[in-house]
Design goal:
It is a single chain. The protein is of the alpha/beta class. Helices cover 40% and strands 18% of the residues. It has 11 helices and 7 strands. It has a 7-stranded mixed β-sheet. Helix 1 crosses helix 2 and helix 6 packs antiparallel against helix 7.
Length: 316
């Protein structure tokens, strides 16, 4: 009997003896592991207030989340939940930085983010981890689940995807080219889970806040809640290449009347981001931002220079 067939036989016997599913028995008998990210930075964050952080446990859980392995997550969750300092580090790494918790976030997460931001600005404060220590398992579990939703898609290396930008006056007699943008994919936490987003980065002098507000009609976004969904805006994605193709506005007849962005080349996006778009079928479009970092986006929002809408996604 080959090793593989022997393992399958042992797995079935284990499932019958314990009354578990075959998938669970497979996990329990093979002791598999998932690639774990380097989370050593968690130990240096201020949110646990100097209390020990179980970095290997956090890395195992994040690895299981990114692999979509339910049995591993179920197995690790109780141990991680009991370690409130490690939960504080994982959650603080997200909610001390992320601009929007989201309308569907649990009340625990919404309240705890204020503590995370306070601790970020006042290192040495134990408010965040002390609050976690006083929570019930249900409350802390809500925060941990929201946190892991974010970690499950975070960490991918995502490059800016540019568009063809004609040189002004390069075609005699033609109209000046429309303002052009690059797009930078990312995610924002939206309560029930992460929402994919595309940040518009200006490529030409005419690109900017006035263009997005006046030509595109997007409203200003202060990051307090998600912006409105506009069904006339579409992000088109190519399934075969897992790439973004165009961002366009449709007229009443369903034809494109404005193409805001069009890829100049096929760039396959990270699987975790593409899968999230496939799951949500909507994308947050925000801009403009010369710097698409969280801090720069917050500054732009505070100044009233950030516009945003939620668009539909169409797969080609």
């Amino acid at each position: 009997m080959t090793r593989n067939r022997r393992h399958k036989r042992d797995t079935r016997q284990h499932a019958r003896a314990t009354g578990t599913s075959y998938q669970r028995a497979l996990y329990e008998t093979r002791g598999h592991e998932h690639p774990a990210p380097d989370l050593t930075i968690l130990a240096d964050l201020p949110y646990p207030a100097g209390r020990p952080v179980n970095v290997p446990l956090a890395a195992k859980m994040v690895g299981a989340c990114r692999a979509g392995c339910g049995p591993c997550q179920d197995d690790l969750f109780p141990e991680l939940l009991a370690d409130r300092a490690t939960v504080a580090a994982l959650a603080g790494a997200v909610y001390g930085l992320v601009p929007v918790v989201g309308m569907l976030a649990s009340p625990t997460t919404s309240a705890w983010q204020d503590l995370a931001r306070y601790v970020k600005e006042h290192p040495g404060s134990a408010d965040a981890v002390d609050a976690l220590s006083l929570m019930s398992d249900e409350e802390a579990g809500d925060l941990l689940n929201d946190t892991l939703d974010h970690w499950s898609v975070a960490g991918a290396d995502i490059s800016i995807v540019t568009a063809d930008v004609p040189e002004p006056g390069s075609v005699p007699g033609d109209e000046p080219p429309a303002p052009a943008y690059a797009v930078c994919p990312g995610t924002v936490h939206a309560g029930g889970g992460p929402l994919p987003m595309l940040v518009l980065v200006p490529e030409t002098p005419g690109a900017g806040t006035d263009d997005i507000r006046d030509r595109c009609g997007w409203p200003a976004w202060d990051m307090s809640t998600l912006p409105p969904m506009d069904p006339d805006w579409r992000l088109r994605m190519d399934i075969a290449t897992r790439s973004a193709q165009t961002i366009a506005h449709l007229d009443a007849a369903g034809w494109d009347d404005l193409i805001l962005w069009q890829a100049s080349e096929t760039v396959s996006l990270p699987p975790v981001w593409f899968d999230l778009v496939d799951q949500k079928e909507h994308v947050l479009l925000i801009g403009p931002a010369d710097d698409p970092s969280d801090e720069a986006l917050r500054r732009a929002a505070a100044a009233g220079d950030l516009m945003a809408i939620v668009a539909r996604v169409r797969f080609l």
